[in-house]
Structures are given as C-alpha cells and as structure tokens.
Design goal:
The protein is of the alpha/beta class. Helix content is 31%, strand content 22%.
Length: 150
C-alpha cells in the first residue's frame, strides 16, 4: 500500500519519519531535533554506544520531495543530496557518528547492482565514509492505528 505522504508538509513528514525510525530501531537513547532549524545534518540521532566516555551514534536525515514521481533518476537526486550533506555528516564523524540513514518519500527501483537501492547505498557509504543506507517511501509505513491524515 502506498501512502500519500505529499499531503503532509515537509515539517510534518520529518516528524513522521522521526517516529517511524524510533519504532524500527528499539532503544531509549534517541534525540529528535526540531524541524526547520539548522541541525548539522541530523534530524534525529540514536546512541549506539555510550560507555566510559565514548559516545557513538547513528544519524538520521529526512529529505522530502513535494512531487516525488517527478524524480526520474533517484540515483542522481541522491548524489546531489550527498554532495550537499556530506560536509555536515563528516563534521559529525569525530563526534561519534558511525552510521547514516537517509529517509525520503521518493520511490526506488530495484535490479541487482543497477537499481537505485544498490547504487544509492554504495554512493552514500563511499562519499560519507561511514556505513549508510536510504529508507525509501516503501520502507516508511505509518504504525497501525495512527491518525496521520494520510
């Protein structure tokens, strides 16, 4: 089932993604950043390790597209996003960033090693210098019983 995420505002979509990420990755160690404010490339973080002064975390970034069906080449779109976000992500690595997750309402296509899933994950990891993955619109599903207006 496809959900009409485009009925949401970019800010509401970010809040939805933050909640969706929290549901997928069970932990109490979450920090969600305010919408529409400078966040250093982080819309949310999840602590992976906090022990003896060491802090490691996963970064979550949301990218909303008003007309996602207009994106004919998701790999090119992601490449542009990576160019914009890479400096911010790289600044977070010394602070403990160990993983990057990009969440978007853009659709993906899949054919082994040639589809947007494989190309984008490889591009993200290579360019950012840490393991990275994209959660496309198909991976983002509202929890049952929520009133998201979508």
């Amino acid at each position: 089932m496809d959900y009409p995420y485009e009925n949401l505002s970019p800010e509401t979509f970010q809040l939805f993604c933050q909640g969706s990420a929290r549901k997928k990755r069970i932990t109490r160690e979450w920090q969600c950043f305010p919408v529409a404010q400078p966040d250093g490339g982080r819309d949310a973080t999840q602590n992976i390790l906090r022990f003896a002064g060491v802090k490691e975390f996963a970064m979550f970034q949301v990218k909303f597209v008003r007309q996602p069906q207009a994106e004919k080449d998701p790999h090119k779109w992601i490449t542009d996003i990576v160019a914009e976000e890479a400096p911010k992500v790289k600044k977070q690595i010394p602070a403990g960033a160990k993983m990057y997750v990009l969440m978007t309402n853009v659709s993906r296509h899949c054919s082994s090693d040639a589809g947007s899933i494989d190309l984008v994950n490889a591009t993200l990891t290579k360019e950012l210098g840490i393991p990275a993955i994209c959660w496309w619109r198909n991976e983002l599903k509202p929890p049952t019983g929520t009133a998201l207006g979508i």
